[in-house]
Amino acid sequence: MPGTSLIGKTALITGAGSGIGKACVFEFASAGAKVIAVDRDEIALAKLASGQITTVVADLSDPERFFPDNLEVDILINNAGVQHVAPIEDFPIEQADFMLSLMLRTPFYLTQKVLPHMYKSKWGRIIGISSIHGHVASPFKSIYVTTKHGLEGLHKAIALEGGAHGVTANTIAPSYVRTPLVEKQIANQAEVNGLSNEEVIDQIMLAPAAVKRLIEPEEVSALALFLCGPNSQSITGSSFGIDNGWVAR
Protein backbone atom coordinates (compact mmCIF):
# COMPACT_ATOMS: atom_id res chain seq x y z
CA MET A 1 0.00 0.00 0.00
CA PRO A 2 1.68 3.23 -1.16
CA GLY A 3 2.38 5.61 1.69
CA THR A 4 2.40 2.94 4.37
CA SER A 5 5.76 2.53 6.06
CA LEU A 6 6.16 0.07 8.90
CA ILE A 7 9.88 0.61 9.41
CA GLY A 8 10.64 0.07 13.08
CA LYS A 9 7.52 -2.04 13.64
CA THR A 10 7.37 -5.76 14.35
CA ALA A 11 4.49 -7.87 13.05
CA LEU A 12 3.59 -11.35 14.25
CA ILE A 13 1.56 -13.28 11.68
CA THR A 14 0.05 -16.68 12.44
CA GLY A 15 -0.79 -19.24 9.79
CA ALA A 16 2.00 -17.68 7.76
CA GLY A 17 3.04 -20.66 5.67
CA SER A 18 0.52 -20.27 2.87
CA GLY A 19 -2.50 -18.40 1.59
CA ILE A 20 -3.50 -15.17 3.32
CA GLY A 21 -0.82 -15.48 5.99
CA LYS A 22 1.95 -15.85 3.44
CA ALA A 23 0.63 -12.89 1.46
CA CYS A 24 0.62 -10.81 4.67
CA VAL A 25 4.22 -11.79 5.40
CA PHE A 26 5.40 -10.42 2.05
CA GLU A 27 3.09 -7.38 2.21
CA PHE A 28 4.30 -6.30 5.63
CA ALA A 29 7.96 -7.08 4.97
CA SER A 30 7.74 -4.97 1.80
CA ALA A 31 6.42 -2.09 3.94
CA GLY A 32 9.52 -2.32 6.14
CA ALA A 33 8.24 -4.29 9.11
CA LYS A 34 10.21 -6.98 10.84
CA VAL A 35 7.99 -10.04 10.49
CA ILE A 36 7.66 -13.05 12.78
CA ALA A 37 6.04 -15.73 10.63
CA VAL A 38 4.43 -18.55 12.63
CA ASP A 39 3.15 -21.83 11.23
CA ARG A 40 3.37 -25.54 11.94
CA ASP A 41 4.57 -26.25 8.38
CA GLU A 42 8.35 -26.19 8.70
CA ILE A 43 8.95 -26.69 4.97
CA ALA A 44 6.69 -23.79 4.00
CA LEU A 45 8.30 -21.49 6.57
CA ALA A 46 11.80 -22.36 5.37
CA LYS A 47 10.92 -20.76 2.03
CA LEU A 48 10.02 -17.48 3.75
CA ALA A 49 13.03 -16.98 6.01
CA SER A 50 15.16 -13.93 5.27
CA GLY A 51 16.98 -11.17 7.10
CA GLN A 52 13.70 -9.38 7.65
CA ILE A 53 11.50 -12.42 8.25
CA THR A 54 11.97 -14.62 11.31
CA THR A 55 10.16 -17.97 11.26
CA VAL A 56 8.75 -19.90 14.21
CA VAL A 57 7.58 -23.47 13.72
CA ALA A 58 4.76 -23.91 16.23
CA ASP A 59 1.55 -25.81 16.87
CA LEU A 60 -0.57 -22.86 17.88
CA SER A 61 -3.23 -25.01 19.48
CA ASP A 62 -0.76 -24.91 22.40
CA PRO A 63 0.57 -21.32 22.27
CA GLU A 64 1.90 -21.29 25.84
CA ARG A 65 4.57 -23.75 24.79
CA PHE A 66 6.00 -21.36 22.20
CA PHE A 67 5.10 -17.91 23.55
CA PRO A 68 5.17 -18.07 27.36
CA ASP A 69 6.18 -14.43 27.87
CA ASN A 70 4.93 -11.01 26.83
CA LEU A 71 5.78 -10.21 23.21
CA GLU A 72 7.37 -7.01 21.94
CA VAL A 73 5.13 -6.97 18.90
CA ASP A 74 3.46 -3.91 17.37
CA ILE A 75 1.15 -5.70 14.95
CA LEU A 76 -0.64 -9.00 15.52
CA ILE A 77 -2.45 -10.76 12.71
CA ASN A 78 -4.58 -13.63 13.97
CA ASN A 79 -4.83 -15.77 10.86
CA ALA A 80 -4.16 -19.41 11.75
CA GLY A 81 -7.10 -21.68 11.01
CA VAL A 82 -8.30 -25.03 9.77
CA GLN A 83 -11.59 -26.32 8.42
CA HIS A 84 -13.58 -29.49 8.95
CA VAL A 85 -16.85 -30.16 7.16
CA ALA A 86 -19.34 -32.52 8.79
CA PRO A 87 -22.92 -32.59 10.10
CA ILE A 88 -23.13 -31.50 13.73
CA GLU A 89 -24.16 -34.93 14.94
CA ASP A 90 -21.12 -36.51 13.26
CA PHE A 91 -18.57 -33.80 14.09
CA PRO A 92 -15.67 -35.37 16.02
CA ILE A 93 -15.45 -33.67 19.41
CA GLU A 94 -11.64 -33.91 19.35
CA GLN A 95 -11.60 -31.95 16.10
CA ALA A 96 -14.02 -29.42 17.56
CA ASP A 97 -11.78 -28.94 20.60
CA PHE A 98 -8.71 -28.48 18.39
CA MET A 99 -10.42 -25.87 16.19
CA LEU A 100 -11.87 -23.95 19.13
CA SER A 101 -8.43 -23.82 20.74
CA LEU A 102 -6.51 -22.84 17.61
CA MET A 103 -8.97 -20.34 16.18
CA LEU A 104 -10.44 -18.71 19.27
CA ARG A 105 -8.42 -19.39 22.41
CA THR A 106 -5.06 -18.78 20.72
CA PRO A 107 -5.97 -15.33 19.33
CA PHE A 108 -7.12 -14.39 22.84
CA TYR A 109 -3.90 -15.72 24.37
CA LEU A 110 -1.64 -13.95 21.86
CA THR A 111 -3.57 -10.73 22.38
CA GLN A 112 -2.84 -10.99 26.10
CA LYS A 113 0.85 -11.36 25.32
CA VAL A 114 1.14 -8.39 22.92
CA LEU A 115 -1.01 -5.80 24.69
CA PRO A 116 1.48 -4.82 27.43
CA HIS A 117 4.04 -3.77 24.82
CA MET A 118 1.43 -2.03 22.68
CA TYR A 119 0.05 -0.15 25.69
CA LYS A 120 3.56 0.91 26.70
CA SER A 121 4.27 2.08 23.14
CA LYS A 122 0.89 3.83 22.83
CA TRP A 123 0.48 2.15 19.45
CA GLY A 124 -0.69 -1.25 18.28
CA ARG A 125 -2.68 -2.94 15.55
CA ILE A 126 -4.51 -6.24 15.98
CA ILE A 127 -6.20 -7.77 12.96
CA GLY A 128 -8.26 -10.94 12.89
CA ILE A 129 -8.63 -12.77 9.61
CA SER A 130 -12.25 -13.69 10.00
CA SER A 131 -14.64 -14.83 7.29
CA ILE A 132 -18.10 -14.25 5.94
CA HIS A 133 -18.83 -17.10 8.35
CA GLY A 134 -18.19 -14.62 11.13
CA HIS A 135 -21.45 -12.98 10.02
CA VAL A 136 -23.53 -15.73 8.43
CA ALA A 137 -23.65 -19.52 8.69
CA SER A 138 -23.40 -22.43 6.29
CA PRO A 139 -24.41 -26.03 6.93
CA PHE A 140 -21.78 -28.58 7.96
CA LYS A 141 -19.34 -25.88 9.20
CA SER A 142 -20.65 -25.47 12.75
CA ILE A 143 -17.32 -25.12 14.56
CA TYR A 144 -15.73 -22.92 11.91
CA VAL A 145 -18.76 -20.62 12.08
CA THR A 146 -18.58 -20.62 15.88
CA THR A 147 -14.91 -19.64 15.95
CA LYS A 148 -15.30 -16.88 13.38
CA HIS A 149 -18.28 -15.36 15.18
CA GLY A 150 -16.18 -15.48 18.33
CA LEU A 151 -13.22 -13.86 16.59
CA GLU A 152 -15.44 -10.97 15.53
CA GLY A 153 -16.58 -10.44 19.12
CA LEU A 154 -13.07 -10.72 20.53
CA HIS A 155 -11.71 -7.98 18.28
CA LYS A 156 -14.62 -5.68 19.11
CA ALA A 157 -13.82 -6.12 22.81
CA ILE A 158 -10.12 -5.47 22.16
CA ALA A 159 -11.07 -2.29 20.30
CA LEU A 160 -13.03 -0.97 23.26
CA GLU A 161 -10.31 -1.76 25.79
CA GLY A 162 -7.38 -0.73 23.62
CA GLY A 163 -8.64 2.53 22.18
CA ALA A 164 -7.42 4.67 25.05
CA HIS A 165 -3.95 3.14 24.65
CA GLY A 166 -3.50 3.76 20.92
CA VAL A 167 -4.42 0.19 19.98
CA THR A 168 -6.94 -0.60 17.26
CA ALA A 169 -8.50 -3.96 16.49
CA ASN A 170 -10.41 -4.94 13.38
CA THR A 171 -11.33 -8.00 11.38
CA ILE A 172 -11.29 -8.82 7.70
CA ALA A 173 -14.09 -11.11 6.56
CA PRO A 174 -13.42 -12.61 3.14
CA SER A 175 -15.50 -15.16 1.32
CA TYR A 176 -13.70 -17.83 -0.66
CA VAL A 177 -10.03 -17.00 -1.13
CA ARG A 178 -7.75 -19.02 -3.38
CA THR A 179 -5.89 -20.85 -0.61
CA PRO A 180 -5.01 -24.46 0.28
CA LEU A 181 -7.73 -24.32 2.95
CA VAL A 182 -10.38 -23.56 0.34
CA GLU A 183 -9.06 -26.27 -1.95
CA LYS A 184 -9.57 -28.77 0.89
CA GLN A 185 -13.05 -27.39 1.48
CA ILE A 186 -13.96 -28.00 -2.13
CA ALA A 187 -13.07 -31.68 -1.81
CA ASN A 188 -14.88 -31.99 1.55
CA GLN A 189 -18.02 -30.26 0.33
CA ALA A 190 -18.02 -32.43 -2.78
CA GLU A 191 -18.03 -35.56 -0.60
CA VAL A 192 -20.67 -34.30 1.84
CA ASN A 193 -23.04 -32.99 -0.84
CA GLY A 194 -22.43 -35.60 -3.54
CA LEU A 195 -21.19 -33.01 -6.04
CA SER A 196 -18.19 -32.63 -8.30
CA ASN A 197 -15.52 -30.10 -7.42
CA GLU A 198 -16.73 -27.80 -10.19
CA GLU A 199 -20.31 -28.03 -8.94
CA VAL A 200 -19.19 -27.12 -5.40
CA ILE A 201 -17.52 -23.95 -6.69
CA ASP A 202 -20.47 -22.95 -8.87
CA GLN A 203 -23.43 -24.10 -6.79
CA ILE A 204 -22.16 -23.53 -3.23
CA MET A 205 -19.17 -21.23 -3.07
CA LEU A 206 -19.96 -18.69 -5.77
CA ALA A 207 -23.74 -19.06 -6.06
CA PRO A 208 -24.55 -16.18 -3.65
CA ALA A 209 -21.76 -13.93 -4.95
CA ALA A 210 -22.36 -10.96 -7.23
CA VAL A 211 -18.83 -11.25 -8.62
CA LYS A 212 -18.14 -14.82 -9.73
CA ARG A 213 -14.48 -15.29 -8.87
CA LEU A 214 -12.28 -16.56 -6.10
CA ILE A 215 -10.49 -13.82 -4.14
CA GLU A 216 -6.70 -13.64 -4.27
CA PRO A 217 -4.77 -13.64 -0.96
CA GLU A 218 -3.04 -10.39 -1.89
CA GLU A 219 -6.38 -8.57 -1.85
CA VAL A 220 -6.74 -9.45 1.83
CA SER A 221 -3.15 -8.62 2.74
CA ALA A 222 -3.43 -5.21 1.08
CA LEU A 223 -6.42 -4.35 3.28
CA ALA A 224 -4.56 -5.61 6.35
CA LEU A 225 -1.70 -3.27 5.53
CA PHE A 226 -4.08 -0.35 5.09
CA LEU A 227 -5.47 -1.01 8.58
CA CYS A 228 -1.94 -0.48 9.91
CA GLY A 229 -1.27 2.63 7.86
CA PRO A 230 -1.44 6.37 8.49
CA ASN A 231 -5.13 6.73 7.54
CA SER A 232 -6.47 4.01 9.83
CA GLN A 233 -6.08 5.44 13.34
CA SER A 234 -9.83 6.04 13.73
CA ILE A 235 -10.82 2.65 12.33
CA THR A 236 -11.41 0.16 15.13
CA GLY A 237 -13.99 -2.41 16.17
CA SER A 238 -14.98 -2.88 12.55
CA SER A 239 -15.27 -5.85 10.22
CA PHE A 240 -14.38 -5.42 6.56
CA GLY A 241 -15.96 -7.74 4.04
CA ILE A 242 -14.09 -8.83 0.94
CA ASP A 243 -16.78 -11.17 -0.28
CA ASN A 244 -17.78 -10.39 -3.88
CA GLY A 245 -21.16 -9.25 -2.56
CA TRP A 246 -21.74 -12.63 -0.88
CA VAL A 247 -23.58 -11.18 2.13
CA ALA A 248 -25.29 -8.29 0.34
CA ARG A 249 -28.50 -10.31 -0.02
Report the major sheet. Answer: 7 strands, parallel
The whole-number mean of residue pLDDT values reads: 94
Major beta sheet, strand line-up: 3-2-1-4-5-6-7
Based on the structure given, which CATH architecture of the largest domain is correct?
A: 3-Layer(aba) Sandwich
CATH first level of the largest domain: which class? Alpha Beta
Task: Calculate Rg over CA atoms.
Answer: 17 Å
Tally the structural domains.
Answer: 2
What is the strand tally? 7
Report the structural category. alpha/beta
Tally of helical segments: 8
What is the percent of helical residues? 40-55%
CATH superfamily of the largest domain: NAD(P)-binding Rossmann-like Domain
Q: Write down the overall geometry.
A: globular
Q: Unreliable stretches, pLDDT < 50, 5 or more residues?
A: none
The helix/strand order is: EHEHEHEHEHEHHHE
Reported by name, the CATH topology of the largest domain is Rossmann fold
Features:
15% strand, 7 strands, seven-stranded parallel beta sheet, 249 residues, 8 helices, 42% helix, single chain, globular, Rossmann fold, alpha/beta
Q: What is the secondary structure topology, with strand pairs?
A:
Blueprint: E1 10-14, H1 19-30, E2 34-39, H2 42-46, E3 53-57, H3 63-66, E4 75-78, H4 93-121, E5 124-129, H5 142-162, E6 167-174, H6 180-193, H7 197-205, H8 217-226, E7 239-242
Helix pairs in contact: 1-8, 4-5, 6-7
